[in-house]
Design brief:
Elements (H helix, E strand, L loop, with lengths): L1 H14 L4 E4 L2 H8 L7 E5 L6 E4 L4 H7 L5 E3 L6 H4 L5 E4 L6 H11 L3 E4 L3 H6 L4 H24 L6 H14 L4 E2 L4 E4 L20 E6 L1 E3 L2 E2 L2 E6 L5 H20 L6 H14 L11 E3 L6 E5 L12 E4 L2 E4 L3 E4 L2 E4 L10 E2 L11
């Protein structure tokens, strides 16, 4: 699979008139080579004859196992790069992930080879998932669903937000995940008005809405799901907020189809919330791509023009946040299918989205 991904990258290098790309962002190195170490770089050449994975001595054996189809060099320095670029004149670098000092050093060392900014080529490939990637994402989402089911029988007034967050972290691993995808968000009562609230010492109380945003990681791929539940019977105002956000989320999922822009998906959610007079309380984008990173391309935001393609995996997560009262966010992870009509997306997160009173 990694070899096919490198071939797809070569096509992009030809289009960009680049002789080679130096890949230094580790998640991109992993995507193109299979190597999962914490240090390394990868040179991908347009003709394929200069491809090489470069690691230091800590990872020699690991690289040999994980990237057996690649030429490999053990080195901490860049003396290997000049001979690999022999006869080549245009080198792309991942400028969004390479420091200014490192870029200047490359320019100085490579002499006649022109160093060009070339961000986004690997990310564009990663945005469309193959069936194996979708299967890993589905497995991660399944763990999230399993943990949420157990959470609904355990969550009770009196627990602190931080207690719930730690419980989620533990149970995600117990359920079979390799790791948590990100530190869980647990926001009870008025803290729900903060979209990225850090769980703290506040005790959950009867009548709270509790926002729970968490994910599992399987094989490097992450799930992402948010549910807002009630402890006992919430106020009518809070119930109305949940109803509005749930309608917006369903509108967003219904709008997902191949060829639709991510801005149109965002608009479907945003327009529904505007009908409730709360457009200004929807303070973030509607969603994002998810895969080897919890936030990756494409961005599902207001005005975005990226078109959805079959195999893209995105989140739909509208929210409303009212200071002093609380907030609601509901999030699902969906796969864009090959259909071109609305409502054809496949939802990977299966937990109920209706308001649950626990």
């Amino acid at each position: 699979m990694s070899a096919a991904r490198r071939e797809a990258l070569r096509a992009r290098l030809r289009q960009a008139d680049l002789d080679a790309l130096l890949v230094t962002k580790l998640v991109n190195v992993r995507y193109l080579s299979g190597f999962t170490g914490s240090a390394g770089s990868l040179l991908v050449t347009q003709d394929g004859r200069g491809d090489v994975l470069v690691v230091d001595g800590r990872y020699t054996e690991q690289a040999a196992t994980q990237a057996a189809d690649l030429d490999r060099i053990e080195s901490r320095l860049r003396e290997w790069l000049v001979p690999r670029l022999a006869g080549r004149t245009r080198l792309g670098v991942e400028s969004a992930h390479l420091s200014w000092d490192a870029a200047r050093a490359l320019i100085s060392e490579l002499g006649p080879v022109k160093v060009m900014p070339a961000t986004g080529h690997v990310e564009a490939l990663r945005a469309v998932k193959d069936p194996d990637e979708v299967a890993l994402l589905a497995a991660a989402c399944g763990i999230g669903d399993e943990v949420f089911t157990r959470l609904c029988t355990w969550l009770t007034p009196g627990l602190r937000e931080i207690d719930v967050s730690r419980w989620l972290e533990r149970e995600i691993i117990v359920a079979g995940a390799d790791a948590v995808a990100f530190p869980p968000i647990v926001a009870g009562g008025p803290n729900g008005a903060r979209p990225h609230h850090a769980p703290g010492e506040r005790h959950l109380v009867q009548g709270d809405l509790v926002t729970l945003d968490f994910g599992a990681q399987v094989g490097g791929y992450s799930s992402d799901m948010t549910r807002t539940v009630a402890l006992g019977e919430p106020s009518q105002r809070l119930r109305s907020l949940h109803d509005l956000v749930l309608s917006a989320e369903r509108d967003g999922i219904q709008s997902v189809a191949q060829g639709v822009t991510t801005g149109q998906v965002d608009a479907a959610c945003r327009e529904r919330i505007a009908t409730g007079g709360l457009r200004e309380r929807f303070v973030h984008s509607t969603g994002h791509g998810v895969g080897l990173e919890i936030h990756e391309e494409p961005s599902v935001r207001e005005g975005a023009e990226a078109k959805l393609l079959a195999g893209m995996v995105i989140t739909i997560e509208p929210g409303v946040y009212v200071p002093g009262l609380g907030g609601v966010r509901i999030e699902d992870t969906v796969v864009v299918t090959s259909g071109t009509s609305a409502g054809t997306a496949a939802v990977l997160t299966r937990s109920p989205t209706d308001l649950l009173s626990l």
